[in-house]
Structure formats: structure tokens, C-alpha cells
## 1
Amino acid sequence: MDSKQGPWNISAAKISYDQEKQVYEAEGDVRISSGDRSIEADWALLDTEKQVADLRGHVRLRYGKDWLEGEHVLWNLKEETGTVDEGMVFFSENHFYVHGQSINKTGPMEYALKQGFITSCDPYKPDWKLRYGEMKVNLEGIAWARDTSFWVRNVPLLYTPFVALPVQQKRQSGFLLPWAGFSELNGMELEVPFYWAFREDMDATFYGRYMTKRGWMSGLEYRVASPRWGEGIWLFNYLSDEADKSHLEAQGYPFQTADRYWVRSRHSFELPYEIRGRLDLDLVSDSNYLKEFEKGSSSFDFSDNMFREFFGRGILNDETILARESSLYMDQRHESALLGLDVRYWDQLDRSLNEFTLQKLPSLSFSVIPSRFLGTPLFYSLDSSWVNYWRQEGDRGNRFDVFPRISYPMHWKSYLDIEPSVGVRANSYSVSWQEDDRNSWQGRLLSDVRLEMSSRLNRVYAFNMGNVVAMQHSIRPEVVYEYVPKGLGQDDIPQFDPLDADQTFNEIRYGVTNFFTSKSVLRDADGNQATTYHEFARLQLFHAFNFQPSEPNLNFDFERGEGASSVGMRLDLMPQKYVMLTYDTDFYSTVSSQANHDLIMTLDSGRGHLFRVDYQFRKDYPIDELITEFSVKIMPNVYVNTYHDYSFDKDELYKQGYGIKYIQGCWGLGLTYEKEEEDQRVALSINLLGLGSFGGTYAYSSQNSF
């Protein structure tokens, strides 16, 4: 018998064949297989003409990762249909086990079942199950069940005359799990999403959210993954705000506009001639939007997490930044050159500053990486750009920047690398001054000299601890001297961005980096040796001395003081794959006061225990903040977690949260408490593997009680 995947093969302890009836009878460890399909049974009667098998005793049919089992099965091998008495079906895509006293497979993707249950737990001892009287399953759609009841172990908790379950193996349009909550600001809230899979390469989710104190908010999430249109996610929310103005004022959010919206996107695409591009949008109606709507599909965290998951880059500016940045970037890459187009637009939410905000509409750039010059030992590189700066009020115009550089790298064996170089920067401006008495054409010419020296010293030490047999210590000292004299025409040029500031400086920078690498020898399952290398530590120290102070620039906070700079240190420790510590600091060499600190430490056992510390300190800004996160597995299935965000500058615990989770294979139960300033939230969630999460949130102000 031939099938679409090749002929069927049969094997058993005993096989007999009736040539007249064209029937095989097999007994003992019967196995019938073809491709990724197989049938196992204790006894089988196989009619080769009708291609029907009568199977008895521990019958199991496998089709890919799905399977069906029972004690007595009548099966049509050609149509892949049949009946099962007292059997079970496993759908791998959703990890569902479906038991039924009677199972009838009516088509390649259709089932009809009677008197059974469905679960994603161990089907022989399920923690939860959904009993049904009758159920019809379409793997291209959903399962509709009648006379259903939800059970936890042997206790019934809920009855419903019918229910729809997500068992589709392909994307399917339909309603998603809703979200509900309450807050003093918005009142009772309910958000219901509807998913629409209208094309193989595109889909959309519509969000309907009602808030008793704000009205109806609409939302749209559009996703595309197409060779022609690229990959992108676009989100849009709109609310015609019905909030009482005095109520908003009392909550700390003065009324600004009734039309509330937020448009954001991340989109990557390719054009002819090997041009690649990406479009990022971030347009908000007012400065309070991202602060007022912190939950659901309209929240900053919802969009930021989605963008990071799919594109590896989130929203550039957090919810506190009033200048929202949107950009369009395209480039064409060659072997040693890059041609780019960049359009930048800042949506200034402080509307009083909007007309003075400078926009880059657009900028063009052309760069050449260091390349050999006409077969000589010299190398050349080039950075160039043309930028159009525009705003409604204030100076605006164009800047053309050309910055070529010639270098001569030299090497003394493997001990010393020396690279002197010289560069010339020319800037040309066409300016529309706010005052009309200045020349529209301006220019500047700068030159610089640079000398870079570095070396690398290595030593290997024998080591014997566990699987580690050796350790290498590498030292890389570096010295860079750079001199930029006063430029020609500096006093007459506009101040569009930091590149236009006074670049004059005479500075030497030096430092040393230490690398520590271990060598391990392991044996695989066959006893063969496998060598691995792991860089487990890195320590960098750097310092600078400026021989000549630069002129202060109030526009860009761009100034180098004369004399020694702060000493910088960066430490990275990665002794094991579960341990990571990074410490980055600047401190002054002449005084004991500390300047900047960044400390990130993560301890992750990989078994449910996690501890993370993030400390930030900035001497020149009011930033002195400690964020801690702690999660521990206190029992085999119980996890406790907490996080705190404490500001030493304000002496305030700005944000805190506590939670407990119970996870038992196919289901989980969680309870969390959050407090952020005056708002507090309590959330209870239930997760059933295959069905999703169910839960709600209650939020309240500290001035109120439950």
C-alpha cells in the first residue's frame, strides 16, 4: 500500500497473509509505519484493498508530534480518519490532552468527541480539567464544547453550557483575554482585544477599553512580516477624554486637551539597490498621556517590551522625556563605505518650546572606513555629512561637514602598535538668521593631530581547579594624544548641535585594560576531550590630562577643564554563567569626593533564585538611586519575589512591589502588590497552560481604603 509519504511497512512477532482477501493479520508488538506516521498495537487486521486497519490492545497512532491512543481503533490509512473507543488525543501545538469515551476523527483536521475531559496537565492525574458532554474540534479553528464544567482535582468549581477553546494550529481571528482594573484616576476599566489574522504576512489587534471616568479609548496594533513590505509593528490609541477637569487637577494632571492619542512604531524594510532602512515613530498628544495611562495596551511598558522583543530596540525616550523622537534612517553599505540618510523629528510636548525645537530634516552622510591609500603604507578615512536644520522660530539653515584623515600605522613585532594621524575638518554653513544683519554664508576650518600607542602583554599560568587547567592574564596599555588648535571662523558660525561648539583641546588620554581568560577541558558523552575558553574578568582604568581648557558653551554643556580629569574605572566579572557584575565609576584623583557610579550585579541560579542590584549615582545631577530585585524559590513550586526603587536624593522609596507565585506544571497562581508614590495595586492571576492567564487588578490611592 502506497501513501503520500511512501509505502506502509508492517512488522510484528507473528504475521499471516490471506491472499484471496488481501488481508494481513499481525500479533505481538505490531508496528505499521510510513514517514513520520506510525501505528502500534497488540493485534491488527489490515485490509490492503480498503486500506482499513482494525487495531486492538494498547493502540497508539502518531502523526508528527500529535498522537491518539485507545484500546480499540478502526482506522482508514488513506483518509486518516477513524473511531476510537475510550481513547485520548494529544495536540502538541497547544499541549492539550483530550479524553473521550468516543472519539471520531472525521477529517484531517476535525474531531468529534463525547463524554470526556480536556487538560494540559498529566492526563492520568490532572490538577485541572474541563469536563464536557460533546465537543467538536477543528485544528484550523477552535474547539466548541457543550455541557462543560471546570474541575480542580476532583472538585467542580464552575459550570457553563458551552465554551470555546483555542486549539487552532494556525493563526485564527477571535477575541483575546480581556483586562480589567480600577484606579482613582480612571475609575473602573475593562479592555477587550480582538485579533484579526487577515493575511499570512499581516495581522491586527483591535483594543476596546472603557473607563468610567474617562470614556472609550480605541486602540490598534498592526503587525507585518513580509519580504515586500518589511517587518514592522504599528500601534495607535485614541481617547476623546470625558474626564472632569477638577478631578484631573486633584490627581496632579492638569487638563491639556480632550483629544488624547499616541502613535508609535518600529518598522524595518529593504529597498532596491541594497538599501536598508528603519522607521521609528513616537508622537503623543500631550505631556501627561504616558503618565496617566500606565496599564493595558496604551501603556509605555506594553509597547516598549513588545518592540524590544521583536526588534531588539525599545522606545528611545522613556515616559518622563517631553521631547519625543521620531526618525527615518536608510543606508547603503559597500565594502569600505557607507551612504546614509537620516531624518529626525522631535515632538516637543512642552508646546511653549515646540516652535523653537530644532529638527534635522534631513541629514545625509558618507563615510569611508580606514583604507589603504594607493598601495602606500598610508591609510585614509572620511566622515562627511550635509544637514538641514529647521524650526519655526530661531536660527535655521544647512551645514556641510567634511572630515578626512590620513594615518600611518606601524607595528614593532607583537609588542608595540603606533599610529600617528592628521585630520582636517571643514564646515560650511548657509544660515537664515533670526536677525537679518548677519551674513548667511559662514565657514570654519579645523585641523587636528593624533598619536595612538598600544601594546599587549600576555602570560599563561598553570591552574588546576575543577575542569580549569590554565588561566591567561592579558594587559593592554594604551596612550592617545590629540591636539586641536583654534579653528578659523569659529566665532561666526551658528550653534546647531555639539559639533558646532568649540572643539579646541590639547589632551593626553591613557589607560590600561586587564583581561582574564580561563581554559577548561571537558569530556563529552563519548569520552572525547573538548576545550573551551571563558573570559571571566575585565578591569579597565583610564585617565586624561588637558593642557588647555576649552571655552564654555552654555548651549551644549560642552567644556573640558584644564588639568587632570577624573579617573575612570570599569570592572566586569563573569566567573560563572549565572553570575555577572559590572561596576563603572568616575572619581577625582585630587579629592575624595565621588563623581559617578553605575553598579549592576545579577546572581541567577537558573533554578528559580534571582538577585539583581542596580545602583546609579551622578554628582552633577539629582540621581542617587538603588533598584533591587529579589526572587527565591522557597518551596518546590512556590516563588516569592520583590523589588524596590529607592531614591537617596529624595530619601523616598519611589516604587516597590511584592509577589508570590505557585507553579504546578500545567497551572500557576500569582498574587502581587505594587505601590508607586500614592497609587497602590493588588493583582491576582491564574495561569492555565494552553488557555492563558486570567486575573484582575485593583488599584487605589493611599487616601482611600478597600
## 2
Amino acid sequence: MDAAAVRERAADLPTSPGVYQFEDSDGSVLYVGKAVDLRSRVRSYADPRGERIRRMVERAARVDTAVTDTETQALLLEANLIKRHQPRYNVRLKDDKSYPLVQLTDHQFPRIEVTRDPDPDATVYGPYTQMKRVETVVKALRETYGLRGCSDHKFQGRDRPCLDYEMGLCTAPCTGEIDEPGYTADVESVKRFFEGETGVLADPLRDAMETAAADQEFERAANLRDRLEAVEAFHGGGGEAVHAGEREERAVDVLGVAISGGDATVARLHSADGKLVDRERHALAAPEGEDRVAAVLSAFLTQYYAERDLPDALLLSERPDDPDVTAWLEAEGVAVRVPGAGREATLVDLALKNARSRDAGRDGLAALRDALSLDRRPRRIEGFDVSHAGGKAVVGSDVTFVDGEAAKSDYRRKRLTDENDDYANMRRLVAWRAERAVEGRDDRPDPDLLLIDGGEGQLGAAQDALAETGWDVPVVALAKAEELVVTPEGVQRWPDDAAHLHVLQRVRDEAHRFAVAYHQQVRDEVSTPLDDVEGVGPELRKRLLRRFGSVEGLREASREELASVEGVGPSTAERVDRAL
């Protein structure tokens, strides 16, 4: 888009808060932003301030927008869209967390539900910050107005109301317990609540609370009081009265940012009741400009705390550059500090050291890129291995490393067809991963590199699988015996102390460990002669197999050795010995 096209598009936009998306000619999202005034903000892109944003505008073919009720909603919706589309020109955190929405489906009798992926035709409200608060409010709405929460499958063809009706959560339109006009009136009341009329729900709750207290049903009154507080805070009425100084800071997160070239690392230390209990690091693409650390913090805070509890306090190396982020945190009762001295400053320094320690891993990835002639640094590597015992209990592992560290939430494993053929097993494993990726059934991003545990044969099998499925991802293998790196172009021997070799070794060794662990689990679950022995249950069977390694090992063991296993005893040992 040129400057004239941007100004023309901006002239059609409202002056309301909302989010905007620059998209290319294929509909891919290039950039997502938020605005207090959509018209003014989009118009500013006619004269981009940075070279990176100028390139983005040149590539863009259109601008799409969504209006929100508040600036905070725009902030959270921006974070959701960045997570969903992973736009190339945003500072983005690669995880699957997003802020919750509430939708009323487009049905004759609409369903209400909390979701992160709304239906295209639904009436959607949000996003909201706290999942627990949203769930509490939706439950209160259902108890008050009886909107259904069931799936279409459960709704259709019912002869009698379900348990939700008996519990007072639904008025059962499925069986005609309420007619369509009555149900529609209840839906309209729910819509009025989400559009800001808090009393539609708060007033019935307050009346019920007072009635319960008068009847000396104090536990019910307390539950209704808690629900009323959540309802009143839902639209900001209760949250604005919360100040950081009025709450005990039991949970504190410390964030430090390190930037190297176009990459940024955020280290998070978590303190609970004054003790450090967790530390982790996250990689983001670094933005352009002078206040890069502040920009990274603004992006990280809104994206990371989707579906995660906000702490009581945040200790930061710098203030976020986005005042809307600071205002949002303050409204949620989070104290934000940039300490200059004392213990808190020491914690921030520790977070900075953790962030900077990622540089060594990056150096190894950069060297790996150069050694394998890859297009970019392989930030995301998936490692594959197969484990079995003579073709029995065949399993495969698929582990993921991001920026040189294990990302265990992205590990996967696969039970394979029993066959004593390492090459065929590897081909099946890689084909399984590739087919899921090509068909869009795997929720993980595509890796920058596949690493196969094995030699030329295993690599060839993996290449066959990739060719059959059409998944275009670089692949190499690492053979254990001599630590040779096998590539489609040939075999390489790297120095033993090479950082890029160590990166591959860590991935290969973890893939092997994960495969062996799963194989042992599957092996312990297969049928054995112990299954019919009286007094030998699943747990005892596992202990016996772990102690003696296999059924053959059990056969060779004496009754005295069998009886020495915890939970066996002489009589059970005799029955096991006879069965074997």
C-alpha cells in the first residue's frame, strides 16, 4: 500500500478503540496493532517511522479492523490475534495461550460458552483477563437466565431435560420447558449484561444473597457474595478500587530482557512467599527503535499472562513503553516496580544474567546454521528416535528444542506397528509427523530442522517420508558410534568441542531417552504369563518386570529371589514360578 491508499482506508474508519491488521494479497496477517482511535492510528502508517514498518506497509494489500468497547479490550484482543496469526512484523511470543472470550452461538436457542476460538457467526464478547472470573460470571448468568451450555449433539433429539436443568443451570429449551420468545428474552438480558449493564446480573445476585443471609444460610450467602464481587469487577466496577499497597505480595515475578541483534530473550524468575521457586526463559523477535527492551516487555506482558495468573507484583529492568499495559496491570492490582537498589534490584540483576546466558546457545545455533548452510538460525529443532525389543513394543519419540533448550510441552510420542526394521519404523514415525503438519492437524509450529537418531539408513527413511508427504523441512542425522553428522549432501565430522555439535547431541540424547522410557512403559503393559497369576496385579507385575528385566529373567529367577520383591512373599512367588 502506498501513502494515499493508507489515508483513504483510514478515512473510512471510526474514531473508536480497537485493533487493526495489515494483510498481504494472500490474506496473511503481516502486523497487528491496537489503537485508542483507529482512524488516527492507521493514518499514521502513511508516514512510517521505522524501516521495518515501512517494508510491512509496502507489502500490505489491505487493512482489516475490529472495534472494541474499551482500550483494555483492544490491548487483550491484540495479544490474542498476535498469538493466533504469528505476524512477521510483530514482537511475538510463541506459545498457545490466549485470553478468553464469551460467545453466544448463532442458533435458534443460542448456547453460551467460554472459548478461545469463537465460531464465525457467533456474538462474541471480550477478551477478558481472568479465566476464573469469566467462568464464575457465565455460571451466574446461566443460573439466573438458564441459557444452555450443551453441544448441538446433546441438545438435539432429547426426550427429557438433562442434569443441567435439574441443577438450575438451564431452562431446557430442548424439550420445550421454555418457549422461544421466553428464551430469546433471557438471551437479550445476557447481552445487556455483556454490553455493560451490570445490574442485570448483580441485582438478582444481591437479592439472593440477602435472602440467604436472612434465612441464616450463611455458606450460601458467602458463595453468592463472592460471585457478586466477581460480577461487579467484570466491567471494572470492582477492580478500580484495588491497589497494590492493600494486598500482600505473596507472588512476585521478576523479568529481565537481553537483546542480541534481531533476537530478544526474556528471563522470568518467580518468587512465592519470599522464595525463588521457578525460572524460565522465552525467545522473541526483537523490534526496531531505541527503546527495544521496553517494547519487548510490553509485548511479553500481554502475551505471556494470557491464561496465566498475574502475580501480586512485577519487578522489571525497565518500564514497559506502552502506557495501556501499565494501566491494565494497575487495574488488575499488580504492583509494577523498577528497583534501583536493595534485594529487589539484585533479583532483577539475576534475571538479566539468566536472559544473557542464552547467548551461548544462540552462538551454537548460529554455527549450526552456517555448518549446514541453512537459510536461518534453527531456533526450533525436533529430534526423532525409535525404540523396540526385537520388533516388539515399537515406539517413536518426537522431542522439541527451542533456542537450544527442551520444550517439553511440545514433546510427542507414537506407538508404531511391531516390525523389526529400523528404517521402516523411522519412515513411519517421520511420515506421521509430516502428515499431521501438512494437513494442519499438529498445533505446533513447523521446525527449522529435523534431527534423526541414526545414520545414513535412518536419514534416507526420513527423506522418503518427507518426499511422500511433501513436507519441506531440512533434515540431518547424528550417528552415535562416531558422532558423525549425516546430511543429504554427505557425512561430516565436526570437532568434539564444537558448540553446534553439542546442540545436536542434546537433542539426539533427549529423543533417545524419551523413546526408551515410552518403550519400557509399553513393554510393561503387554500381555505376560503373570496376567493370570492370583495375587499379581498391574503394579506388582511392573515391579517384577523392572526387577528382572523381562519374562525370561523371571523364568531364570529362583523362588527366593522372586519372594524378595516387595509385595510378593513365598506363596505368590510359588504361583509365579509355576505359571512361568
## 3
Amino acid sequence: MTSLLLIRLLDWRVWKHREQHKAFNGRKAIRRFILGANITAIMWSVYILKVISNPLSGDIDLSTHIIIISAMAGGSATVLAGHKYTAMAYAFILLAPPSLGLLFSGIYERQMLGILGVLFGIVIVVIAKKNAEFTAQAVLLKNQNAVLVHHMEEKVERRTHTIYELSNLDPLTGLFNRTAFLQHLKLRLLEAKQQQQSLAVLFIDLDGFKKINDAIGHDTGDQVLNNTAQRLKHLCHNHQLLCRWGGDEFLLAIEDCDESLAISRSEEIIQTLSAAYTFANNRLSVGATVGIALYPQHSQNEHSLIRLADTAMYAQKKRSPSTVGVFSDQLEKQIHRELLLKDGLSQAVDKNQLHLVYQPIIDANDCQIVSFEALLRWRLNDEMIPPDEFISIAEQYGLIRKIGQWVLEQACQTASSWAQRHPIAICVNVSVAQLEDDDFVDIVEAALQSSQLAPELLHIEMTESVFTSDIGLLAEQIKALQDKGVKVSIDDFGTGYSSLSIMQDLAVNIVKIDRSFVERIDTNGYAIITAVMHMARALNYSVVAEGIETQSQMNTLRSLGVDYLQGYYFAKPLPIDQVEQLISAEQAPKLLAES
């Protein structure tokens, strides 16, 4: 018995050692334990049988051993409850043989003990079975609860992660969103203040992204944004300071960064983002414009820094896309004035702040006035705002349609009053935005009808910049105007986008040579004007030269065969009352020349 117990003790130590190192085999360990327990029970049972069969054993000695094995059997019902059949077998092996031995001993007292042993054994076996089943159920419930708790913890963790992503990450690119970026930037600004370091905020806006979205689809656009985000990640050391601000806009903050380093990093970003993308055999390219605001030079607040960087980017995109712009006080003043003019311009028509002046156009042969060009002027708070400043703002903010319609109606009304004395035409400038309106021809027709002006006395002037728009649509609009009797001319001809094929497709009536060529008529301007004249004659267009300031220029242009002349040499833009005087005078050209 001692040897067996020593072997089992040694086996237990080996099992504990392997358990600590996670190297044990659980099934083998259980089998060894069951084998050891059953052998122990058999040895105890054999030993009691020997005590019973020994004639020298007294009643006290026998009773003591029976009490011991009964206690062991009773204890095994609980101790071995983890394995039902071992608990039942252990109690049976301990009690059954000795009980049977007592029953067949032939001694009445011992037979009574045998009967009690059998009954006790039955009870213990039943108890061992119940305990084992209860223990198994408890273990099962414990493990089920553990699995449930683990599952709930995983679910809570997943939900926590999902909530974090929804509140901090952009779902498309995986970059931080506005909220998270602002939080991180605020912390970095506090650290920069403590460490007396500089910091740069870069506002990155993609160039040409809208065309990809519109032409190829939003799925491809999303892929471009995703790849852009990945490229920015490779360029960014701290991903907490990189975010998708919205749409095709990204923000990047660079720690310990001065202006020169910020510009260098921005140029690197532009170069990286401008590399072509390939999706489904489509090779696509987008550029990027970057605006920079610096801490602490420009601001010490995260919201303000982002706004200033956005301002710098916006101004740079208008001036030179796909380059870098740094915020400055001068830029802030420029933006402030632009917003001031925009707000004022939106109310200029209603407040009667706009008025027209008129510059005559002269027949090159007899110096008679054949038409006037209507030019828009704007007075805001006793300041005359130059047209080249406010017209671009009106076009940019969608105000040009309302203003352009007002100019057209006013010009037609004025020209109609002239027509009662002299049939003098009026030239009205229109923008690309007006020409692209589906109802532009209807607006022109309505202005003619309300003013009772003859259509042939209205000339619509458009600049060469319209050639960058939809040529097919422009050709339709021009043809519709000409069908109604309105003449169409191209202003600033030769400065940019003209080509013979486009000129032929549009089939306008008049071309106006830009003043810049007239100014250089004594040098290379002469050759250009000559070429324009040949082109106009080939296409059967009339030619107007503008910007004439000297008699020499006038004489040269006449010798080249220019049809009409316009410029300060004849008259500056005149208010309506002076125009009325010119028209009323019998010698209008003479008065004009004297002015």
C-alpha cells in the first residue's frame, strides 16, 4: 500500500510539473488517476478480506477496519464525483467484497455487519452517482457561463470598437475623421506650446476629382480617395494627425515644422498624389493643391489654423492649381475684401448701385458712330469697384446671371431710345455662365420685346474663354441668337483659345482684336493683327480693333483693312447724358474726336 501511494504521489508531482508548463496530456493523466484509485480500492478490499478471514482478528479490530473503509467509501462519493463511474466503482470495490465476506462468515454478529455493509454500499453507490451527475451539471453550467461571459465580453469589445470607429474614423478611407483629428490636434498644440515648437497644418484638396466622379462614377471616385488616403499614410509619421476632412479634402498636421519644411513636404505630397492611378484598365490622374497655416505665427487655435489653411488652399487653387500656398495677412485681407464685395454685389441690383457707361465704336471708313459697347460700373460705399475685380466675383458666386440679365435689359432699353433718332447698335458682354443657361436665348428675346429694340441693333459679345466650355452648346446658342437677328462677336480675340476649326464651328459675325496687340502694333503686334485679318476675311467676319489711343495706331489699322475702331483716342466710356449729346449732335464724329 505504501509503495502504491508513493507511486501515485510521484505521478501527481509529474502531472503538476507538466501542468505548469502546459505540456501534459489530460486524457492520459485521467486514465492514470482512475487506474491508481481502483488499484488502491482493490488493495484495501483485499486487505479487509484478509482481516475478516483471520481467526485471530477480534471484533474491535474488525470493526475499526470496517469503519475506516466505510468512511473512505463515503468520502469517495464526494471526492471522486468528478468522474461518475470511478466514484461508483471505488465505493463498490471497497464495500462489496468485505460485506459479502461478512455475510458468509457464519457468525451472526458479522452477518449483521455484512447486511449493513451491503445496504450502506448500495446507498453510497447511489449517492456517488447522484453527486457525480450533480457535479457534471455544475461543471457544465460553469463552463457555459464562462463561454457566455467570454462571448459577451467579445461582443461588448466588438461593439466598443464599432462605436469607436463610427465616432473617430472615416468609414471610406479608415483615416481619422474631423472630430478625432481636432482632438489630437488640440493636444499636439498644447504640447507644442509647452515645448516651444512650431507646427504646420496642411489643407489638401484634390484637383480634377469631380470630373472623375462625374465621368466614370462614384465607385471609381471612392477608389481614388482610398488610394489617396493610403499614399498620405505612407508620407505621414503620426497617423493621429492625418484625417479626411470631407469630400476630396484631407488635413495633415506636421510637428516641429517651419514654413520652408512645410512647403517642401507639401510639394512632396503633391508629387506623390499626382502619380497616376490604375483601376480596371483605366489610368487616372488627379492633382492636389495644398494650403499651409503655421503655429504660432498665424494662430494658436486648432479651428482657426484649419480655417486659415483652407483659405490659403482656396486662394492658391484659383491662382495656380496643383501648387502650394502659405497663408499671409495680405491673403486674409484679400479674402475679406472678396467676401465684402460678394455680399455687396448680391444686393447691388436691388440697391441701384449699378449703372452703365457706353464707349462708341467707329466705322473705320467714315468715322461715324455705328454702335456703343455697354460697360458695367459699380459704386459701393462711395468707392468705384473696378469691373475686372467684381465681374470675376460675380461669376464665381453665381451672381452673374442676375446682374447680366439686368445689364441686358438696361442696355436694350437705352438703345431703343436711341433708335428713335439714329439706328445705333448696342454691344453687351455676356459670360460663359450666361451662355450656358438653357433659357439665355429666351432672356434675350424677352429683353428685346420689352424694350421694342430691333434684334439687328443688339450685339452679344463673348470672350475667348468660352471656347473652353461645351462648343456644341455654344454653337447652338449662337445659331439661335442669329436666327432671331442678333449679331454675335468674340471679344479679346487672339489672346488664348482660338483656333480655325472652333471659329468656323461657331460662325460668329464679328471678332474684336484685343487691345494688347494694338499696343504692340509697332512690333510683333502688327504680324498678329495681320494674321487675324486674314483669318477674319477667310471666314467672312467683320473686325473691330479696340484699345486705340493714338492717331498712328488708327492709321495703321485702317491700312490693314480693319472695319471698326474703338478706344480712348475717340472717347472714354461715357455716361448716358453725354451719349445723348453725341447722338443728338449733327457732327457727332467731330465732337467725339474733340473729346
## 4
Amino acid sequence: MNAKILFVAPFAGLAKLAQEVVVERFSDSAHFIHVVKGDLQECMAIVKQAVEDGAEVIVSRGGTATLIEQNVNIPIVHIQVTVMDVLRALKQSGDYPEKIGIAGFENVIYGCEDLATLLGITFVEIVLQNEAEAQEKIALAAQNGVELIVGDAISTKLAVRAGVKGALIQSGKDAIYKAINEAKLIARIRREEQEKSELLRTVIDASAEGIVATDMDDNITIFNPMAEKIFQVSHLEAIGNQLKTVIPQFSWSEEEDSAEKVADVRRIGDKTLMIKQSRIKVKNENIGIIYDFQNVSQLQQLEQNVRKKLHAKGLVAHIKMDDIVGLSSACLAFKRKATKYALTQSTILITGESGTGKEMLAQSIHNVSRRASGPFVAVNCAALPENLLESELFGYEGGAFTGAKKGGRQGLFELAHGGTLFLDEIGEMPLALQPRILRVLQEKAIMHLGGDSVIPIDVRIIAATNRNLNNLIEEKKFRQDLYYRLNILRIHIPSLHERVEDIPLLAKEMMKKMKHINTKITGLNLEAREHLKQCNWPGNIRQLANTMERAMLLSNGPMITKRNIIEAYDAEGESLGERLREKSKAQDSLAKVEHETLLRVLLEEEYNYSRAAARLGIHRTTLWRKLNAKQT
């Protein structure tokens, strides 16, 4: 929007010229430039009304401009009088005498010495400070031989009264154009500064933090609404007064007060506040200090609200490091390593057999890390087809594909911003999708499907696999560069047969969590504990949990017995495990190795033929046929 400019012309001729300039040179913004005629006091009522109506800059000349400048607080642009304007006035007066008076306010008289030399005449400067003294000075000049007064409107009027001839200095169109153009520039800059100031004021006033600024003499210059609320002091009482007077309980030590930045937690009155101090500098010169006050109780409440929202979305890690049960050296070793790795921001790769608790460890790492207050998002890379996994991870724009949600959708990388993304079964990640994951790890940014803008993200990646990624690389099923990006920090979770001493502890913890199944159960007898340690657990903790659940259902007494464990232990699993052991002793032929692999995968997938076949890359009927062919 163009600025509102008021052009005040002391005489009719100037008003007419100004109107012509506006039409000729400012046609696109003519409705924002208002030209009025008024000299000295007679124009002040018009000017004051224009300022109230929103005038942003005033253009005028001579004494009128000076008077306006003394009475209003908006910018005034003076129309500069040039030597050409003086020459034009002399020419219009006809034959001019040798002694001429140049009369006017200081902004009218300048550059006339050179003109006098060129014309061979004498110029007498009559500088007017105000209208009251003008008549006296011009009358005195007339008495001293001045025969012609050249000057502004008031000067020429008074010259006639003093009995001498007067020549009015008329401003040319060029001077008028320059003045209006300068007014537009000033108004635009002023408007921009006002907009910046208003934006800053809005941000400060809307801040959830108390913001107080002082000058170098400790006088308060800013005191926002939140500061009013925290200290129960109105900004009207605060601004202009010293900080130590308004908030007497608050002070820094000399060392803190001279520091560039300071942060501390202080008790002020009945509130515990997080306080930050920063110096305000302009061209490396200190001009003040800004203080940021945050109510710690309010911060805690905000954090609780964030956690509630994340919990409602299921983006929360429930498992903590202490929830991982085990006192064996193998268990304590990987927990120590995980705790150290959690304190970094690097990518972590968790390896281990199926059922060992890789996601539990990922959640516990998240809860130890600095990202614990952020979201924890988990995705199973083997559970979704390639096209669906891609849209889930990266999100999509509306209309990106048939069936896409109107308005698009955020991906899991965006949902995990500020937190952790757990990529389970990363070894099953489709090969075509792996370059996009690599790019995210390298550039810390994603792009929606169907989108063309890059979205920066701050996400820590934890990946997990039960497969040998080096073998997959050799088989051209996993990218080597992605493997090196994932394998920065590595944690291997041992299987149950590597931490046998933890089995009774795990069983006891599981019984506590499943107490609702059989409230009469009080524990495991010694024989049951020993038998659990002797069983084969190819399904690891997952299989142990299933066995304990069945044992609790089967038990009739207060203690789970060895017989309960034997009955609860998966008979098919026992036989499959036994076959695996028998086959490992046989000759290492290709057919036997294949059979072992089929049985192991089926066991790991808890005898779900569809999932096992998907992992093996064959049809479930083919898996069934191969297994049955070997048994006959």
C-alpha cells in the first residue's frame, strides 16, 4: 500500500504546480497524495487533522515547513530552494537593483553567494527565525538601502508593507517532484520499520515466556504480558523504572551481569524460574540486556501435555533399561553398551535372533537418550509391501496416487521428528527402497511421494535385524553403503542359550505381569526352574513367555511344577528343535542344510507357514511340500 502524503503549499501557485506534478508523475498513487494550500498558522488545523487521519509524511516549504516540524511528530520533507528558483524570481521582477535582500527561513537561503558574484550584485541575507521578528528585520533592511526582497510568501508580504518591492521564490516542478519522491521513500521505509516493530511486538506479547529488556542504565524498556503475569506488575508501572526496583528479588552477580549470555534456575517469590540473559548489541556496542523468564512448573506441565499427546498417538517408548531382566554377564554387557551408545546421536544397529527383545532394547535406548521427551516411532520393514512401506515412511501429497488421502499425509520420519525411528527387520527392507533410506541418513531430509519440496528432519535411527546383513550384501539383497551407514554403533543381543542363568529371572518377571491369568500362582519350584534352563528355546524370550502363559493356565496348585512346564512347552517346537539338533549331527549336504533352514525359519515364525514362506521367498504350499517331502 502507498503511503499517505500531505503536501502543504504556502501559496496558491505552489499548490497548483504540486497538483500538476502529482497528476503527471504520480498517477499510480495520486489518491494517496493530498495537496492543500495554507501558510504558517492558518494551515496547522489542517495538518493536525491530517495526522489524526493517518498522514505519514508531510511535504512543505520555508517557514511553513519549519512551523509544521515544530508541532507534529511525523517526518517533514522540505522542498529545497535552488539557485535556479532565485534566478527565476529575479527575472520575473524585471530590472533588479544592485542591493537585494534574500529573506526567509534557514531552509530557503543557501547558495546565494556564488549567484551574487556571477551577477555583480549584492545579496543581503535576512534570516528569519519566526514570523514575529520577520517584519522588524525586513523593515530594517529597507532602511539600509535594500530595494528588493526576494523570498518566501511571508517575506514578500512583509516587504510590501515595508515599502519595497517583493519577488516570490517559486519552486519548480523538478524540486516538487524530488520532494514528493523523497516523501514516498521515507514513508515506505517508515512503514516497513513499523511493520517490523509491530511484528516484533506481537511476537513478544504472544510469547509464553516473560520477556524483560533494559537499557544500559538498567531502565526497563520492554515488559511483556507474561512478565506482568509472573511478577504481578503492570507494564505501565515497569517501563521506565529500574529493574532492581520493579523486581527487587532478582539480581545477577557482577560476573554474571557482565557475561554475554547467562542461564540459571532461581527462586523468585513463590515461583521457580528458568532465567536467561543476553546482551543486546548494535554494531558490537552494548545497548541493553534482554531477560527471558520461564516458569519451571509451566514447562513441566507443557512437557506432560506433549507426553500425553504422544501417548495418545502411540508414539511413546514404554520400556526402560531397568525393565530388561537379566544378571548374566552377557546381559549386563549389552545393557552397559546400550546405555553408553544411547548418550550419542549416532545410528545404532541391533542384531540378534528372533524373539530376543530387540524392540525392547530400542525403546530403552530412546528413554536413556536426550530424545526421551520426543516421539518413539516403530515400523516393521517386513510387515508391509514395498509401495505401502514407502508411503508410510515418507508420507505423500494429496493425489499422489489412487486412494491417497485428500490433503496428503505425514510419514513416519516426520512423526519421529525430534525423537527416534526404529526400523525393525531392516534386512527385509526392499532393495528398491534402500537408496531413499540412505539419502535420509546422509541429508537429514525427506520428500513426500508426489511432492517437490524438501522437508528437514531431526531423527535418530535405530535399526534391528535377525539376519546376517553381510550375507545379504553378497547375495545383492542389501546395499553395502546403507549397511555402513547403519552399522556405526552395533549391539548384539545374546540368545537365551547364551544367558541360561537369566531364564528363571525372566520366568519370574513374566509370571508377575501375567498374574491375572491365575491369581493362585505364587512361584516356580526348584525342579521347574532347572527344567526351564535345560529346554531348548529357539524362539528365545518370545517362546519362553508363551510357555509360561500356558504353564500358569495348566497349574492347579500355588507353585508351577516341572510337569506343568513339560506340558506347556510346545510339543511341536520340542520335536522340531530335536530334529534340528539331529540334523546338525548328520552329513552337511545341501539338502540337509535346506531342511534345517526351513525348520528354523518356521520355528522362528511360531509355525506360521505364511510368514515363514514370505521370509524364505517361496509360496507357503512350496514350504509345506518341502517339509513333508523330507519327513517321508
